[in-house]
Amino acid sequence: MTKNRKISITSLALISAASLAAAAAITGGALTAEADRTVTLTGSNYFYTAGQASIEEETVGENYYTAFQFASDSSTVTYRKNLAYHWFASAREDGNPTGVPEEGFLSTEIGFPELNFETFTIKFQSQQYTQTKDDVTDNYVTFIARGESVYVKIGEALPEDATERADAIEEVVSAQDAVALSPESITISFTDYAGGVYSVAVTNDTESMTSANTVYGKFENVGGSYASYVSSTSSTSVTPLTYSAQFAEGAEEPVTMVLYSFNNQSFELVTTEGSDARRINDNTPPVLCLDEDITTLDYGRTIDIDYTVIDMLATSPRSTLNYYVLTNAQRELGNLNYTGDGEEDGTDATNNFIEVASGDDAPVIKGADTYKPGAADNGPDYTTQCLVKVYFTIKDSTASNGNSDDVFLEWYIPSEYLSTVTAGAANDEEYKFIRATADNLGATYSPAADAAEGENGFEGYQQLVEEALAEQKASAGDGNYFYLPSFEEYIRDNVTSYRDLSFSIYYIGSDSGSSTSLAYNELSIEIEDDGLYRFAIYATDAAENQMYYIERDEDGNEVMDENGEPVIVKFAASDLASLLEDPAKSKLVDYVPVFEFTVNYGGLTVTDPEGQDIGFVGTKYSADSFDITGLSSNYSTNYSLYVFDRRAYTEDTGKTISYAQLIKGLSSSLAEDENFFRAYRQYFTLIPALDDLDETEEDYDLYSAYEWDSSALTFIPQEADANSFYVIRLEAEDSTYLTDPIVSYMAISVSAAADPVYGEDTWVQDNVASIVLLSIAGVALIGIVLLIVIKPKEKGDIDVIDEAEVKRVSARKKVSK
Questions:
Q1: How far is residue 120's CA from residue 770's CA, in Å, rounded to a whole number?
Q2: Structure pTM?
Q3: Which of 225, 344, 651, 789 could disulfide-link to 86, CB 3.0 to 4.6 Å?
Q4: Tens of pLDDT along 119-144?
């Protein structure tokens, strides 16, 4: 007998809902259409804690705010996402965008409930405007506690040497123009940007900043409108923000910093309906930061803008490009900035914009009715073919109703490059448009206008080169570079900005060489050999035009063609090689500036390593290379591995030592009797290299498990040494200068087990489409049955589901208790 089993629609709905929820959980999406969402900072998402730092809540009046707590000098809180410095957004009225541009700069409000620290530091790390050896730029805001006030140092960090540090602190506090700030509410803001320098203000009163309540300073050598987060696995890692406290001697209570807001996002903690837990309400749309300085668009090409969308509390902000080329019909109708839907708005307004799907082209070409710009829209050596309007819809989530903004590209372009168009039936509407230009002329050299007779106008850059050489203490050696100063003042292009030029450097020393396709902040020359170097710089503009010069006669006058125009001569980058090798035979000798510098081999130097990545018991550890400057043929190195018995040291001396203290104690700058390794040598056990061990000897059983490889700098930390420190000792000897060997130490902290750090893995984000398709296939049959009955849910946002998962885990923990 066959039994007929009936499954109710409700049961199918529950199965389908569970399947969809599982799919959403896998993809990181959220089944929600709310614009706002709540966020919980866990210490391993957005802001990351280390060294006994924690994220807490602090009561301020009747409100609750996010707070960072620091238990020791080694405690840090880091922000590991892109951080916006400068942008434009639509001004808001009653929370709604108005379409009126509003310039934005980085701004954050913090506070200190108690001044139980000596200094408190916020490190801002970013890409560079002019390249240096470090490849990244560090700028600091340091707060110095004194009495019931704080004093501020902006820019450079305080010195590490205790005496120099104390002197620097006293200099800040006792300066004639020193400003004592109240610690309860302090705002740090950027106020201007030019030539790689941000102006910075730290104040108690943002509405009325004066010299009595505000400290002014500068962040130098900052490249661009945002700091791009680069993982620590990269050789040039960038962590945009690092918060840390430096404790006064004998201080035991943890230091608390309250975070009120950052870049318009409030960090107030609020409750939501149905929950007593306090969370951050993410109600702020993302912002758009450009990676280039746009002046015009290239006519005949697709729109290609380098930009980044940044949100303080969203991992996957989205953007959509919209544009149109202005026509006469559109101009007559007016309302040229309209981005809405006329039917939905109940109006007859027309939206002229074309939405560009991901991967599609956005060609800038003329049509039959394209509006023809006037002669006033033509600039020096370029012709405006048409006018273009571009805006981006940016949103902080994948949900249909996330926090969003419409950002017009023209807001970022200098006014002198924009075209003004009057429109509408009464011709009384005024709009700004971007010019689409045909540019056939490249960059040219720009000598100083005030050059004296007999000078070529580039003496100023030669002086900058000599100053940079001295400042960098550049010397010849394997892998050594001389980092050139900015060439911005000595080259120009009719359309392309300095930041968007592509550079080539040709040089000749004992050998000739070149570096091509360099960004503006990558100008450097490898200096392996000592002696005289001569070099020239070449630039290609955005339209890939060659450089040019204006031909001159023997008296220095411009040569004119038959039309009375100056004769323009274009030349290729490769022509600089022949100029340097044989100037007498090159026509460029009178038109291309050539610079020079001399470097010597200054002997062997070693830079002390800084903090290293943590090691884990049983997992092979690969140490970073030591930073050695010298000619490899002229020096030898020897590496030794030691394990430091932390427990025995503490039991014998009654002292404890942190990782940061160990690094400081191993500094090569310390005197012989002050160096920690030499002073406490008995607590360091030498680990022989595996290749030096004999299986028949007793030492083999003791040390073979470490598998220490002194050539590869790898070893395996052992269980017996859990929570100990390892130290790699380098001894380097210079055979050219017969001096004493240079000794340097690298300290490595080891933990018993590897704790996973959540929030860094982007695998799910990178494979959302595949996972969604797989999940949909699993519920396809049920979905077909229920399609008529159950309304499909919208695709959710990865951040919403991540937050929901935090809540579920928190609830499970409470139940298990």
A1: 46
A2: 0.80
A3: 225
A4: 999 999 999 999 999 999 999 999 99
